[in-house]
Amino acid sequence: MPDTFNTHQIPEPSFGKMKTVEVSVNGERVTRSVAAHTSLLDFLRDELGLKGAKECCSVGECGACTIMVDGEPVNSCLMLAVEGQGKTIETIEGQSAGGQLSTVQHSFLKCGGVQCGFCIPGMVMSAEALHRKSPCAQDSEVREALSGNLCRCGGYNRMFDAMRDAAGEDVHMKTVDPVKGRTVGQDISRAGGVERVTGSQEFIGDLVLPDMAHAKLVTLDVGRARLNKIDVSRARAVPGEIDVVPGADLPQPLPRFGPILKDRPPIAMGETAYHGEAVAIVLAECKDIAAYAAGLVEVDHDPLPVVTSIESALAEGAPLVQDPSLRPGDPLSGTNVLKELEFGWGDVEAPEPDLIVENTYTFPMVTQFAIEPHGFIVSASEEKMTIWSPVQHPFLLQSIMAELFDLPLTSVHVLAPDPGGGFGGKQMPKYEPLLALVSRRIGRPVRLVLTLEETFQSVRRAGARVSVRSGFSKDGDILFHDIQSDYLIGAYADVGTRVTTKGNYLGVGPYRVPNARIRARAVLSHTTPSCAFRGYGTPQVNWAVESQENEAARQLGIDGHEKRKRNVAD
Ligand code: FES
């Protein structure tokens, strides 16, 4: 029997079931009528326009939404607005009333405790709650107080410095020339630092355009599926729904896009290639209605066999991830290998080593986990489009979109606010083409902000299997490395082949290696398309080679550090 429902079945929004809530927000009495299901976070952000508290995980894990309720730090995503009745609420916006930064905000700014800034409003609120109770808090108390606030890019030590600074300790470090012992230049504040500690820094999810529609993707809880029929009738009956669009309702043939290979459709057509690939998109007046209606889309589908590992993707007779017609003339198009390369120098068979170490290492898929989930807004007509995206390469996005929609470059405007972390995951276009198509269709700007779960299903680093055979002299000299690395790049190319190539160019690390052979393959699979991540493919293979170093040092009885110094290139 085919499966029929997708998995995003959420409770019906409480249409019409409104309750009155009266709260004090940053010293002002506020009375509003709110839906019973509205979270305090949504109430503050969407109803009161206080965008300082950020939405990331929505399950109380990351702390980006931290505010104070009756003086206690609270994850506002976990509290309903109606639970705030009669309470005193403080948000980041209330901490710098009159334009004066609070002591904690000032210390965060002074000690450089900010980077992308997405986590900072929540972090400052947790810090502020502690500072009021314990102005001279010990390090252990600070660590405990901030333990519920995740930061992905700033590092915590400067925040701990900031708390010592707020307590009156002299912790401010100046930049010192280690040779002459003099201060270099002058202390400067981080550009955008004030906006970050006050919560006024605007990220994609904070932007509101007139007449903007909210989008939700319809996905299936299956690794790969044949799409038989998509029934949108129940979703279209939901009040507040604007449109429900399966791929077949978009202009055909749908163009494919990609920075290296144009292999990715804006939305799945005929079958899905990985868990989380969109099969339809719902547009509604608010995000709750979009999410509810998405759960009512019925997708008649048949699960199909998948390859999700290097071994299964390379096995004889494995299901092909890509239609060979996407790579005409490519001798590898009948396999799941998208690219292979072999290079090296010297002769790995020539040396007579005292020790040979041979191992296979596996490197798992991991996600970049920027604290800011991915979000996009597109306003498009037949003649032009404007794209708001935290993309790391705005000009590349502009050229890809212009080519895809056959528009002159000057008709594609890309506005790229600072990302709340990217780490390579926001390098390339993801859902911008789909949003442009549906924005054209409804004649309105469309916003899509992914949940954290959807973000995990959209970006990741390539996993890898790296087999290395290495030869060493008894003194610890590297005589050769013979490397075979396979990168599991996922369902579409994105920059997977570049990551595989560049990572392996640096395969032998920073050492003198007289003989090397490096063979590498970028392998397609029915998994989330991989993309760049810090190191651009290098950590996968370098971790294997460094592990060989450790193993050789252990077997030879040489200190690992000394062995590396002996081999490092001058
Ligand atoms: Fe903390 Fe970027 S500054 S996540």
What does this protein structure show overall?
- This protein has 15 helices and 21 strands.
- By secondary structure, the chain is of the alpha+beta class.
- The strands form 4 sheets. The protein has a 7-stranded mixed beta sheet with strand order 9-11-7-18-15-16-17. It has a 5-stranded mixed beta sheet with strand order 3-2-6-4-5, covered by helices on one side. It has a 5-stranded mixed beta sheet with strand order 13-21-20-19-14.
- The radius of gyration is 27 Å and the shape is globular.
- Mean pLDDT is 94; it is low at 1-5.
- FE2/S2 (inorganic) cluster binds next to loops.
Write down the Rg: 27 Å
Bulk shape: globular
Query: What percent of residues are in strands?
Result: 15-25%
Give a count of the beta strands, DSSP E runs of length 2 or more: 21
State the distance separating the first and last CA atoms.
Answer: 65 Å
Bound molecules: FE2/S2 (inorganic) cluster
Structural class: alpha+beta
Q: Tell me the strand order in the biggest sheet.
A: 9-11-7-18-15-16-17
Number of helices: 15
Mean pLDDT figure: 94
The residue ranges in which pLDDT falls below 50 over 5 or more consecutive positions are 1-5
Helix share bin:
10-25%
* Biggest β-sheet description: 7 strands, mixed
